[in-house]
DNA sequence: GCGTGACATGTAAGAATTTACATGTCAAAA
DNA sequence: TTTTGACATGTAAATTCTTACATGTCACGC
């Protein structure tokens, strides 16, 4: 369902677009909260057209098909946004890794957290650049802002976690606990 | 791979546990960053045992099987944590919804954001309670802390986004733009 | 004219995830 | 004593997601 809603939202926000355009939009604006490749997007658009949520508005060069959202699609998007109660959970591989780091020796954990920190610093810089380019105009602004705030929050968390773990260094690590065989 | 690593991490942090225990741990500590149900966990543990990463250390009442991480499992966990560069992307249904809200009339969008805000306020309260219970002891503390910070950041984002959208009310909404048919 | 890279769409296979089905045990309260 | 709820493990089916394969067009520079 999320993919469908995301595509309807992009069509609504950006106007008629091809699957290729939508894949790019996913990459550049929705990437901070949802991901989908073209191999997922193309078949989904076909199904959505069959369900009357979008129509092929025009066909252009290189087989390009321009989809537009229909009134039915627009109604479904609005209904979902107003009525659905989305799950508040998040899926983040990097956060998962960060949480498991404390099972390492404290020194290793700190080193790994510092590498993670650097990557988030880069991410923040990248997002800030994008933010400046966008100005305060585009639809994607909210997404960008969200991504930026969360990346900064992660850096703060990493810093505090490093500090906490560092205090434990010398007080005995978790190195060989809980291992069988 | 993430599921495997998460299970190894939990076994390492909590000591020998059954699939049932691990499912509970997932729910209570890792839930903020990764989700897995028992129907995913049980078969994965069987595969991991076949690969020598865990062993069935004991069998108890009600068919309970207690798994323990092996040295090989421990080595693989450590290797992954130190060497892997996880993707920094996140998948969040609620954030996706939040991003698409601006395609609604500003008034609808603000109403929906306010409902979202309430849910996050509840979440923060819940996490704060859990935090107090845990004290500063447990492994899951980092996860909890992370979840709490991100939930608070989301609330701030919602507030600022509401403010931004509210300023636009009366300046013309996005109500019937970009709809075909 | 030829190559390269962005444009553009698709399918296939496999992995991961979710939801539902299915079964059985144990402890404690009513 | 019976029933309820937590404990405990699985499988099946459907969906979603990722990775790889496969194909062809157009514009631009060399």
From TrEMBL, chains A, B:
Gene3D superfamilies referenced in this protein's UniProt entry, alphabetically: Winged helix-like DNA-binding domain superfamily/Winged helix DNA-binding domain
Question: So which domain of life are we looking at?
Answer: Bacteria
Q: Which residues belong to any copy of the Transcription regulator PadR N-terminal domain? A: 7-78
For the keyword Repressor, the answer is no
Tell me any Pfam family this protein matches: PadR
A single GO molecular-function term is: DNA binding
InterPro entries listed in its UniProt record: Tscrpt_reg_PadR_C, Tscrpt_reg_PadR_N, WH-like_DNA-bd_sf, WH_DNA-bd_sf
Which residues does the UniProt record annotate as the domain Transcription regulator PadR C-terminal?
90-165
Keyword DNA-binding among record annotations: yes
* Alphabetical UniProt keywords: DNA-binding
Q: Which PANTHER family match?
A: TRANSCRIPTION REGULATOR, PADR-LIKE FAMILY, TRANSCRIPTIONAL REGULATOR YQJI
Q: What is this protein called?
A: DNA-binding PadR family transcriptional regulator
Tell me which species this is from: Nonomuraea dietziae
